[in-house]
Amino acid sequence: MKNCPQCGQARIGEEFKCPTCDVFYSQLDELLFEEQQRLERDTLAGAIKRIRAATDRKQAMKQELAALWRKTPLRTKIVLWTVIAFLFVLIVPVI
Length: 95
Known about the structure:
Blueprint: H1 27-42, H2 44-53, H3 57-71, H4 74-91
């Protein structure tokens, strides 16, 4: 679609929404926009963007790590703690 269905303004580039009235150009564009938002929310690249855009990057990094840890399955957490424990035993000599 070349123009906005509501206000008729010409489409600029690969935008999904009209910049003046904030209406999606088509249903496909709406689906693509939602998919893009989901990818930015759930990927490492999206997390890095959020951290870099934050005013307090240290706090943003803590929040992202906490969210990552909450999403990690229990089985994976157990494996990680086991590996850390074995590395600790190998590195730190037992006196």
